TrEMBL record:
Main location: periplasm
Pfam families noted in UniProt: DctP
Protein name: DctP family TRAP transporter solute-binding subunit
One cellular component (GO) term of this entry: outer membrane-bounded periplasmic space
Matches recorded under NCBIfam families: dctP, TRAP_S1
UniProt KW keywords: Periplasm, Signal
Cellular localisation: Periplasm
Lineage: Bacteria, Pseudomonadati, Pseudomonadota, Alphaproteobacteria, Rhodobacterales
InterPro entries, alphabetized: DctP_fam, TRAP_DctP, TRAP_DctP_sf
GO BP annotations, alphabetical order: transmembrane transport
GO MF annotation terms: carbohydrate binding
Recorded superkingdom: Bacteria
Length: 317
């Protein structure tokens, strides 16, 4: 009996631990995605893997986490496009301001051939991308005053992601952009080192930015995709059945993130107003003034990413 027990214990393979790091809290869209990923993996593969969650930048900023994937010290992440173009520059096309009409348009592009082709490129940089998730459209928050026209941004010390496409746009709009990793943003806002930042409602609400920002201006200047990815080291260690299970888990994470975004898009503004934030929504005419001011850099984006690619994104239904 004792020998049989010893034998079966020796046969049971220990669960492999998946270190999953992400920038936001468990009750954010990333947390929702991470939970769905974990549950789907369990449903598919039982106890073969244990997902260990590191929310709230527990493994560092997004750039550090992706570098961790490359060297195999981190296994999985859900990250914004903020730093992605530092690894796969072509992905920066999704960061071009006012490129996507609405969430349905962005989802159609990311779920179609253009999105798929971009995912494949991550295999060349020591990672494996499973699917495109999302954060929603980014808006400006700050402590100086409402932003309704480009002139309202003049000299505004605004934190941007470490993303050259965003940096170029805010410079052209007349702001004073400062690229900064997310873990430094709330302390910098608290200390007044910067006036504002920009993020989608999903982040403004879940990170409680109303506690450090008075004004939210809903300009939707750029769509913010996110990505569900694993290290190449982990991916290459999986057999075909396990790979299929990870793909399914990636899809489950995306569905959960999009569900969260849909809800916060519908209810987030009321929640922020209730918490005392002053919120103004830009009209299509207001947004046009921002687009006009970006006309020259738009031509530069076309030269960088290819006019044909940008046109086919715009033409996607
Ligand atoms: O602003 C950013 O850096 C990103 O949107 C965040 C909040 C880290 C989520 O990916």
């Amino acid at each position: 009996m004792a020998a049989a027990l010893l034998f079966s214990t020796a046969l049971a393979a220990p669960a492999a631990e998946i270190k999953l790091g992400y920038a936001l809290a468990e009750d954010s869209h990333y947390g929702a995605g991470a939970k769905a990923f974990d549950e789907a993996l369990k449903a598919e593969l039982g106890d073969a893997f244990t997902v260990k969650h590191f929310p709230s930048s527990g493994l560092g900023g997004e750039r550090e986490v992706i570098e961790g994937l490359q060297i195999g010290t981190v296994d999985a992440t859900i990250a914004s496009s903020g730093t992605l173009s530092n690894f796969v520059p072509e992905v920066g096309v999704f960061d071009v301001p006012f490129l996507f009409r609405d969430l349905a348009h962005a989802r159609a592009v990311l779920d179609g051939p253009i999105g798929d082709e971009m995912l494949v490129k991550f295999d060349d940089v020591g990672t494996h991308a499973l699917a495109w998730g999302e954060q929603g459209f980014r808006h400006i928050t700050n402590n100086r005053g409402p932003v309704a026209k480009p002139e309202d941004l003049a000299g505004l010390k605004i934190r941007t992601m470490e993303n050259p496409v965003h940096l170029k746009a805010f410079t052209a709009l007349g702001a004073a952009p400062t690229p900064m990793a997310w873990p430094e943003v709330i302390p910098a806002l608290e200390q007044g080192a910067i006036d504002g930042q920009e993020n989608p409602l999903s982040v403004i609400v879940s990170a409680k930015l109303d506690e450090v920002q008075k004004y939210a201006s809903l300009d939707g200047h750029v769509y913010s995709p996110a990505i569900v990815m694993v290290s190449k080291k982990l991916w290459d260690s999986l057999d075909d059945t396990q790979k299929a299970a990870f793909e399914k888990a990636g899809d489950a994470a995306v569905a959960a993130m999009r569900g969260y975004v849909d809800t916060v898009e519908a209810e987030g503004v009321a929640a922020l107003k209730e918490r005392g934030m002053e919120v103004n929504e830009l009209t299509p005419e207001d947004k046009k003034a921002f687009q006009d001011k970006l006309a020259d850099v738009y031509v530069e984006y076309q030269a960088q990413f290819g006019k044909e690619l940008m046109d086919s994104i715009i033409a996607t239904q």
